[in-house]
């Protein structure tokens, strides 16, 4: 396929200069859950969900992710106190709840109850509630934090994954394509479009490409 690059005419975009900004898009609008303490089974004190767009994977082995949180957030206090949180991936069906958890604070409203979310503990980090409505949760323990200015950057080890049965195959593979994940770009929420390719498809043999697309 890459042999055809020379024949393909891609559009080019003359640029205009802007002041520095944070326009990286699309990003996953995730729900960060945390709590003060676990009281019993699925009961937590101070359980909260906050929307975050500024998160990303920064290392594979060991698995580490980044999360940037403003110190004025309720979630910041919870993470600072416990050093633990979960990143719950969001689906298209959850778009309004994701927005709500990004414009209201857990200091003023029980967002989990208001959104009708169900929480449960995970096996890897039971002290942190995860959302049953989310197809995948990454359980995280803070290894390091740094105040950058408006936000504090948390670097956290991913200590476990909880994945919905519905997106797991019998042989233990995870198919995130089935999850209906939500995307966020410059102030708007989107659903993902059709599959265009797979990792390495530009150099894959034609037969493999045909099989997998
Ligand atoms: C799409 C979206 C993305 C957001 N991303 C972040 C983020 O990455 N970091 C952050 O501190 N706040 C972010 N916010 C704002 C917080 O979610 C918001 O201030 C929230 O009310 C804080 O909740 P809390 O006080 O319960 O923690 C985002 C909001 C939205 C709607």
Protein model, in words:
There is one protein chain. With about 210 residues, the chain is mainly β. It has one domain: Pnp Oxidase, Chain A. It is built from four helices and 13 strands. The protein has helices at about 75-80, 95-100, 110-115, 205-210; strands at about 30-35, 35-40, 45, 50, 55-60, 65-70, 85-90, 120, 130, 135-145, 150-165, 180-185, 190. The strands form four sheets. A seven-stranded antiparallel sheet has the order 4-1-7-10-11-6-5. Strand 5 (about 55-60) and strand 6 (about 65-70) form a beta hairpin. The protein is globular. Bound molecules: flavin mononucleotide.
By CATH reckoning, the class would read Mainly Beta
Q: Which second-level CATH architecture applies? A: Roll
- What is the fold named in CATH at topology level? Pnp Oxidase, Chain A
Overall mean pLDDT stands at 96
How is the biggest beta sheet arranged? 7 strands, antiparallel
**H and E order:** EEEEEEHEHHEEEEEEH
Rg, Cα atoms, Å: 19 Å
Structural topology:
Elements: E1 30-34, E2 37-40, E3 43-45, E4 48-52, E5 55-59, E6 64-69, H1 74-82, E7 84-88, H2 95-100, H3 111-115, E8 119-121, E9 129-131, E10 136-147, E11 152-163, E12 182-185, E13 188-191, H4 206-212
Antiparallel strand pairs: 1-4, 1-7, 2-3, 5-6, 6-11, 7-10, 8-9, 10-11, 12-13
Bound molecules: flavin mononucleotide.
The site of flavin mononucleotide has 22 residues, from β4, β6 and α1.
């Amino acid at each position: 396929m890459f042999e055809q690059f020379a024949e393909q005419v891609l559009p080019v975009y003359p640029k205009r200069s802007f002041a520095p900004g944070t326009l990286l898009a699309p990003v996953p609008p995730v729900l960060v859950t945390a709590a003060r303490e676990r009281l019993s089974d699925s009961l937590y004190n101070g359980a909260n969900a906050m929307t975050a767009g500024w998160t990303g994977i920064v290392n594979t082995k060991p698995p580490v992710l980044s999360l940037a949180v403003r110190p004025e957030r309720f979630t910041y206090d919870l993470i600072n106190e416990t050093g633990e949180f979960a990143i719950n991936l969001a689906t298209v069906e959850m778009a309004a709840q994701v927005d709500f958890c990004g414009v209201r604070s857990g200091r003023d409203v029980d967002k989990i109850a208001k959104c009708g979310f169900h929480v449960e503990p995970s096996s890897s980090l039971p002290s942190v509630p995860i959302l049953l409505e989310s197809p995948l949760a990454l359980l995280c323990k803070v290894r390091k934090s740094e105040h950058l200015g408006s936000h504090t950057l948390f670097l956290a080890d991913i200590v476990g994954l909880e994945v919905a049965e519905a997106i797991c195959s019998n042989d233990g593979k995870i198919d995130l394509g089935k999850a209906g994940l939500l995307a966020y770009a410059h102030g708007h929420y989107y659903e993902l479009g059709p599959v265009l390719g797979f990792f390495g498809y530009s150099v894959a043999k034609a037969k493999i490409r045909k099989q997998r697309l």
